[in-house]
Design brief:
Blueprint: H1 2-21, H2 26-46, H3 57-74, H4 78-100, H5 106-125, H6 127-130, E1 136-137, H7 152-174, H8 177-187, H9 189-194, H10 199-225, E2 227-228, H11 230-233, H12 236-249, H13 256-274, H14 279-293, H15 298-316
Antiparallel strand pairs: 1-2
Helix pairs in contact: 1-7, 2-7, 2-10, 2-12, 2-13, 3-4, 3-10, 4-10, 7-10, 8-10, 12-13, 13-14
Length: about 325
């Protein structure tokens, strides 16, 4: 755990210096950091616990709407509305899991799509609160210590803090009792139950934590967008992108989702500017190559090969 925390500290130091070195590339960096945080949050449920969700855009949308509605209608600062969004998302995750965890495999994944669609329809139809299909515009924000939260630099540091907190949380959990319980349930629920672990309670805790962390990132995303529209913020495509980021980077690993975010978001932007209309084709080919030749994800496959080399050296000695 110590080496991972040291690595996080080094990356955090590099991140703090990033705006001064690359002031013109902050928008891409913000996207990478947000997806790194969302994918790592998703991985608590989908990787460490083995419950693949395709509805995590719901929690992104909740965080964004809490910030936008809280500021535009009630004058609440975003840090308060992000905290409220995290609590609400955790409660929603509890009831969501309580209703759907009796389903396994693809049936659970399909149920998450259905619940996410329900939330999107609620956002569209409850115009008095959400602005309906028109959406909500975030026109003003407080300026703590004179900092303009609409500036890309401030948003970069918010996204950096979010990603760092989520990764640090996973580092701690990976070596805690809860982390071992998550992996036990993922590998075999019946064996975990025989060992005295309550699979449903473990999955509910993972879902609640994953939902709360994702919603905080959603609140930051709301500040970045400044305009929240339900068809975009609750889109199935966003949920799939979050899941793909973790899967391609390496599910059930500490750094896999962050590597996946760097590869997918960074490569996507590079392809869009370099290959123009062919960028989606090349982007799809990249995903296909990773899935076919790195089934455990980039970090997962590297870890597997490293372990094989260690065993080979021991066998030779």
């Amino acid at each position: 755990m110590i080496k991972h925390l040291i690595g996080l500290g080094v990356l955090l130091a590099v991140g703090i210096a990033y705006p001064a070195i690359f002031p013109n590339n902050l928008t891409i960096a913000i996207s990478v950091l947000l997806f790194a945080g969302w994918a790592t949050s998703w991985d608590l449920l989908g990787g460490w616990n083995g419950q693949v969700s395709l509805g995590h855009a719901s929690f992104v949308g909740l965080g964004a709407y809490f910030v936008a509605i809280g500021q535009s209608q009630f004058g609440l600062a975003p840090w308060w509305t992000m905290a409220m969004a995290a609590v609400f998302a955790a409660i929603l995750g509890y009831f969501w899991g309580w209703l759907t965890f009796s389903l396994r495999g693809p049936y659970f994944s399909l149920s998450t799509i259905a619940v996410a669609e329900i939330l999107r329809l609620i956002a569209i139809n409850e115009e008095w609160l959400t602005g309906g299909a028109t959406g909500v515009f975030l026109a003003t924000l407080p300026e703590p210590f004179g900092i303009d939260l609409f500036s890309r630099t401030a948003q970069f540091y918010m996204a950096l803090a979010f990603a760092a907190v989520v990764v640090a949380t996973v580092i701690v959990i990976s070596r805690a009792q809860f982390g071992y319980q998550l992996r036990a349930v993922r590998e075999d629920e019946d064996s975990a139950m025989a060992a005295g672990i309550d699979p449903t309670a473990t999955k509910l805790k993972a879902f609640m934590l994953s939902a709360a962390l994702t919603s905080i990132g959603g609140g930051i995303y709301g500040v970045v967008l400044a305009f929240i529209e339900p068809h975009v913020i609750f889109a199935l495509l966003l949920s799939v992108q979050i899941a793909l980021t973790a899967i391609i980077g390496g599910r059930g690993t500490i750094w896999g989702p962050s590597v996946g975010a760097l590869v997918l978001i960074g490569a996507g932007e590079m392809f869009r500017t370099t290959f123009a209309e062919a960028n989606m084709l090349i982007y799809g080919i990249l995903i296909l190559i990773v899935v076919l030749f790195l089934p455990r994800g980039i970090v997962g496959e590297l870890a597997r090969r490293h372990i094989r080399r260690l065993y080979a050296k021991r066998a030779q000695s």
